[in-house]
Each structure stands twice: as C-alpha cells, then as structure tokens.
Structure to design on (515 residues):
C-alpha cells in the first residue's frame, strides 16, 4: 500500500477518533471509527465503484492492523510477560508487603506522590517500562493515602516520556539520534545541546514536583482529588478501571516480603539495560556505550528482560513455597489476561497511526505547511513547537513526529536561521512529547492509565488541562528563545510563568476542599 496525498482530509481520522473518545468516553469504538474513516478516504482515492471502495476499506483495515501487530510483536510480548510478572509478584504478596512497609514510612499524601515521581525519574531507560513498573510498585502506597488513580496515572505519564526525552541513555534518545542521519548534524551532540531548551520536559517535571509538594491541583483533576480525600473514591463512580479486576481478585500469599517485589524489579532494570546493549551489539565490541544504546531495538530487548525477570521470580517464589508451581503458572495466565485491554487499545492506536503516516501522509501535509510558510525567523521555535504538538497529538506518536519533522526543521534552520537550529530542534522534541502526552491514542497514555488501574478517558480528561497549561508556558518560552537565543532568560521566564499561573488557576478553578 503506497501513501497518497489527500490534503486536509489526512487529518480527519485522528480528529474523528479523538473527538468521539472525548465525547463518548469510550475509546475502542472511537478508534475503530477513526480507522475506518481513514481507510475509507484512502480507498475512495485508490478504488472505483461503491462495492470496490467498501471492500478495499475493510481489506486495507485488516491488512494494516495485521501489519502493525507484526511490527510491534515484541512490544506485545513484553507487555504480556510484564503483566505476568506483575501478577505473580502480586500473588506472592510482594506488592502488599512493600505497600505495608512504605505506608509505615511514608506518612503523608505528599510523601507518597513525591516517592512516585522520584521513582519515575529513576526509570529513564524506556517509557513503556516506566509506565507499567511504577504503577505496579506505587499503587498500593498511593491507594492507602487516598490519591486518586487519575492523579497517579498523571504522575506516571508525566515522568515517563519527559524524563526519557532528556536522558542521553534511553530508547527515546536512540530514536532521536537516528533521525539526525542525513542532516549533516552530529546526533548525540545535538541531542545533548537540546536538553536545556526542551522546555516541555523540564517544566513538566517541575510541575509534577510542585503538585506533589502542594495542593495546587485545578480543573477535573482537583475534583478527582477532592473525592479521593473526602470519600475515598479513587475513581469516578461510573468509570471502569483498566483491566485490574483479575489482579484485584487474586488470593495474596501471606508469606510475601518486600524483597519479593524489589528483587524481580531490580532484575528487570538490570536485564533491561543489559538486553538493550546486547540487542544493540555492544558486547560484540567496537562501539561505545552510547552507540550500543543508540543501535538497540527497545521491543525485543524489553521482552528479553521481562522473560529474565520472570525466571528470577520463579526461582525466588517457588522453591521457598511462597507460591506453588501450579499457582505461579496460573498467575502467568492471569497477568497476560489483565493486559488484554491494553493490547486492544494499543493495536487500534498503532493502526490509526499507520493510517495517518503510511496511507494518508498526514505528517508530510502538516510538515509541508511549515516548510512553505513565510514565518518570521524569530517565531520558528514556537511555531515548530505548536505544529509538532498538533501532529503528535493527531497521530498519537512522538517517534513518528520526530521522523517527519526533524529532517525538515534541520534543513530549514540551517538555511534561514542557523543560530536557531538547536532551539528549533528542541522545540520539535518538546512539541512531540506534548502532543503524545495529551493524545488519547498515544501508547504511553494508554499504558499510564493501565499501570495506574485508571479508566483511560478519566486519565485523558484530567491530564489534558495540565499538559496544555505547561504547553502554553513553553510557547511563551519559545517566543523568548526565538527573540533572544538566551537560555537563562528563556528558563527564567518560562518557570516564573508556570509557578505564577499555577497559583492563579488553583485559586479560581479548584474545589474549596483542597485549597
């Protein structure tokens, strides 16, 4: 299937899917309708006759969906194995023991939230690993301190992509660096120089720690937090959590200890690092550590790491009779089953992303608008930031946005504004993460709600105001950066605006109970 150019029609599928999801509060049907609208547009331009168009619509949909599952089979396997690991750790009583231990030492809601955020920053290797691991480890602690699942999912999401995109050793850095090929730029050098100007990542992390240390929530999130504090309602009364019922109903061993959680998680972290280096060819010699991470493929590496951690869990639990062999194996089935909702949504999200990127050329259309516009040079960073955010939001992928915009922005800036090249590329990365962070069809957004056992639409509706708020502060920062190219002034203006506006928004848009 070859991509076609359909102009404005190329952005209709994501608009339809996202709009329906926000209106109906039901993400699966919204994604399916969005996918079908995109394949219908594609078929209408490449087939003739009503019957021919309809047949090709469904054939294209199923073929594309099968291709996306095949392309992402390693990620599906990783999620299945990680779900199994989560289940057996839970059954062994490791999560419960850690929750009991942490509750005795974490005596406040702020402490529980800060501990969650800090753990998120420590797990910077990969966002998938980050999202599911933090939810597993910290949910028992945050539940006991009456922190809503919407807030937990925000803390997970806000410390996943934002930390990965500023960590030189991460799967995200590898993706960005790979997009620099052919631009005449040194990928690693440019990535490191872009970190101080990646305003969205930096301000999101600042925002997280402010919200964890204070009660400055506002908007829908404040309502969720009020219900959690006053009524111990961790979810909205009408919502359904993301696939956690099986895990919540399991019989928990009374023999579990804190190390029954820590050892498998530490093993997973160590195996993830070693597996990424192995898949990247580092152990074959002839490359640096950074090159090893840069050459890796995160999906197979994480699948290998999760299998290794599951084997460690087996030898940790079964010989000690914390779990019998039969219960351990049944736990694997329960864990894989708990991931089915995430599998479905991710498959649909990958498919609609493929519709936009591989069939309708959504990225080329939006990128072309940027390339031909006669924008003032000083406004390049802020315009690039907004376009990257919109494109990433529409497609549900930061990495796809990197691949489309980085080559365009690098060439444009080197021709018309060389002094703004680093700033504009930073704005590209920041905008891509913003759009990914907001999008209901983003895989990291889906996994964050899954890890926190939060209804997906609840997570999206409470997170979007926070994302757009930080994004607005970043836009002002990029205007300053484009006009002055002064890093210190840019950071000061952006941070001051963030703190001041946050106080104002909390004062006028928060329930009295949390003021």
């Amino acid at each position: 299937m070859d991509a076609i150019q359909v102009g404005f029609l190329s952005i209709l599928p994501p608009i339809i899917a996202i709009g329906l999801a926000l209106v109906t509060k039901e993400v699966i049907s919204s994604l399916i309708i969005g996918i079908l609208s995109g394949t219908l547009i594609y078929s209408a331009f490449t087939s003739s006759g009503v019957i021919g168009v309809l047949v090709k619509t469904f054939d294209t949909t199923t073929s594309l969906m099968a291709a996306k599952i095949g392309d992402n089979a390693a990620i599906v396997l990783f999620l299945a194995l990680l779900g199994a690991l989560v289940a057996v750790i839970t059954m062994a009583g490791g999560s419960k023991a850690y929750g009991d231990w942490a509750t005795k030492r974490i005596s406040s809601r702020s402490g529980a939230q800060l501990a969650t955020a800090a753990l998120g920053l420590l797990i910077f290797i990969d966002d998938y690993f980050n999202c599911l691991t933090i939810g597993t480890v910290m949910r028992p602690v945050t539940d006991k301190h009456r922190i809503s699942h919407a807030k937990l999912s925000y803390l997970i999401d806000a410390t996943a992509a934002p930390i990965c995109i500023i960590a030189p050793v991460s799967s995200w850095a590898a993706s960005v660096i790979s997009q620099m090929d052919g631009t005449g730029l040194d990928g690693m050098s440019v990535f490191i120089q872009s970190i101080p100007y990646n305003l969205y990542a930096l301000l999101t992390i600042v925002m997280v720690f402010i919200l964890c240390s204070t009660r400055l929530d506002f908007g829908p999130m404040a309502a969720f937090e009020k219900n959690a504090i006053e009524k111990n309602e961790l979810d909205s009364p009408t919502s359904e959590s993301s696939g956690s019922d099986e895990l919540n109903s399991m019989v928990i061993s009374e023999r579990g200890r804190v190390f029954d959680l820590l050892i498998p998680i530490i093993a997973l972290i160590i195996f993830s690092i070693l597996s990424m280096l192995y898949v990247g060819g580092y152990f074959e010699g002839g490359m640096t550590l950074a090159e090893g991470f840069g050459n890796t493929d995160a999906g197979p590496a994480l699948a290998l790491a999760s299998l290794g951690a599951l084997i460690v869990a087996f030898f940790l639990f079964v010989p000690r009779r914390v779990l019998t062999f039969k219960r351990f194996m049944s736990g694997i089935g329960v864990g894989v089953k708990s991931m089915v909702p995430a599998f479905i949504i991710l498959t649909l999200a990958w498919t609609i992303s493929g519709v936009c990127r591989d069939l309708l050329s959504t990225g080329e259309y939006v990128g072309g608008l940027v390339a031909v516009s006669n924008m003032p040079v000083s406004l390049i960073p802020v315009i690039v930031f907004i376009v990257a955010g919109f494109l990433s939001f529409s497609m549900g992928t930061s990495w796809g946005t990197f691949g489309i915009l980085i080559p365009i922005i690098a060439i444009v800036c080197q021709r018309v504004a060389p002094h703004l090249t680093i700033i504009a590329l930073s704005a590209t990365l920041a905008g891509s993460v913003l759009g990914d962070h907001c999008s209901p069809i983003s895989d990291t957004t889906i996994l964050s709600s899954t890890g926190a056992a939060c209804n997906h639409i609840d997570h999206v509706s409470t997170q979007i105001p926070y994302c757009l708020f930080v994004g607005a502060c970043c836009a002002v920062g990029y205007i300053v950066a484009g006009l002055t190219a002064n890093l210190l002034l840019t950071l000061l203006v952006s941070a001051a605006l963030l703190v001041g506006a946050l106080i104002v928004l909390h004062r006028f848009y928060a329930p009295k109970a949390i003021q």
Notes: The chain has a mean pLDDT of 83. Residues 72-515 form one domain. DSSP finds 26 helices and no strands in the chain.
